[in-house]
Amino acid sequence: MLDGKKVLFSGMQATGNLTLGNYLGALKNWVNLSEEYECFYSVVDLHSITVRQDPSELRQRARKLLALYIAAGLDPEKNCIYYQSHVSGHAELAWILNCFTYMGELNRMTQFKDKAAKHADNINAGLFTYPVLMAADILLYQADVVPVGKDQLQHLEITRDIAQRFNAIYGDVFTIPEPFIGKTGAKIASLQDPSKKMSKSDENANASIYLMDDPDTVIRKFKRAVTDSEAQVRYREEQPGIRNLIDIYCVCTGKSPEDTEKEFDGKGYGEFKLAVGEAVVSVLKPLQSRFAELIKDKSYIDRVIKENGDKANYFAAKTLRKVQKKVGFPERVR
Ligand code: ATP
Ligand code: LTN
């Protein structure tokens, strides 16, 4: 609890260009929850270097991502929007938690297996202990709730296990966080292979809608989306491509799958795909124009970075001091 409100933590990596999956699965929920909770939204740049990055590109992407959080509707006066690398407590707590995490637990993480297969030439220790850093992010702010897409559930479970293990030894130090998964949009699939998630690191640009795609590109990608030969707009397991498009349409318009089935009853896929494309364009357009305005305002963004970095440091230090004391590090002489 902070100021009588429950605490929310979430973050995104500044790698690649954000997709509609990131927006509908995570960012959109962040905005919806931001009034109810005391929120910390981090640009998790420490996580980004588990995969090799070009330094100047990483810096630019991180700044753009931070501006995008604001453009999506997060008010930086009310929500703490900051860079993970500006709060040293993340790395310090991660080290401590590393000593309370088992190799066997980390070995089971599917994201590690996927990324290790993808980057076989750079399977570094950071990639392996990534979930521990993520646990540190969350526990550092005593978060009650963590809104993420379904792919992150396993990391939330290990976070809870680490926190419970620590609490069992040292008493009630950490709040045990709950994941928050949105009802719709939690797993947006690739437009080219509906069995895979839409991902910003997909090599096929037609598989993902990027948040900065122009309207023509968005419409074209939906037209090319892989569907089936059933020729019916039905929300069924057997039609994963169409089901994914219905999900996207519903999150963008607020309609239900049943209403969507009725709306497109007897109509062809061409007409439906166009409607999905238009619904997405109407969500992306205001986001893009707010972003274009914001990114030009250098001094405003700099001020947000400074003030929110200080605020995050303040809360992080509180937890860190408590943890350091519990594990037996000597008190500092003032
Ligand atoms: P990468 O593909 O490079 O691993 P990513 O697209 O999965 O990256 P992340 O930065 O790992 O992006 O994820 C940011 C947030 O977006 C997380 O909460 C994640 O659960 C969510 N997310 C990512 N992809 C999807 C998707 N296809 N559907 C719903 N949510 C998603
Ligand atoms: N691992 C997440 C990003 C992430 C995160 C977090 C999400 C890092 N730290 C803390 C929620 C809470 C990802 O790859 N999507």
Give an account of the 3D structure.
- This protein is mainly alpha-helical.
- Helix 7 packs across helix 8 (153-170), helix 9 (215-223) packs antiparallel against helix 12 and helix 10 (240-253) crosses helix 12.
- Helices cover 54% and strands 7% of the residues.
- The chain has 13 helices and five strands.
- It is globular and about 75 Å long.
- The strands form two sheets. Strands 1-2-3 form a three-stranded parallel β-sheet. The protein has a two-stranded parallel sheet with strand order 4-5.
- The structure holds adenosine-5'-triphosphate and L-tryptophanamide.
- L-tryptophanamide binds at residues 9-13, 44, 47, 134, 137-138, 146, 148, 152, 155.
Short description:
The chain is mainly alpha-helical and 334 residues long.
Q: What distinguishing features does this structure have?
A:
binds adenosine-5'-triphosphate; mainly alpha; 334 residues; single chain; two-stranded parallel ribbon; binds L-tryptophanamide; 3-stranded parallel sheet; 13 helices
Write the layout of secondary structure elements.
Elements: E1 7-12, H1 20-33, E2 38-43, H2 45-48, H3 55-71, E3 80-83, H4 89-98, H5 103-107, H6 110-118, H7 125-140, E4 145-147, H8 153-170, E5 178-180, H9 215-223, H10 240-253, H11 257-263, H12 269-296, H13 298-327
Parallel strand pairs: 1-2, 2-3, 4-5
Helix pairs in contact: 3-12, 4-7, 4-13, 7-8, 9-12, 10-12
The chain binds adenosine-5'-triphosphate and L-tryptophanamide.
Adenosine-5'-triphosphate (ATP) binds next to helix 1.
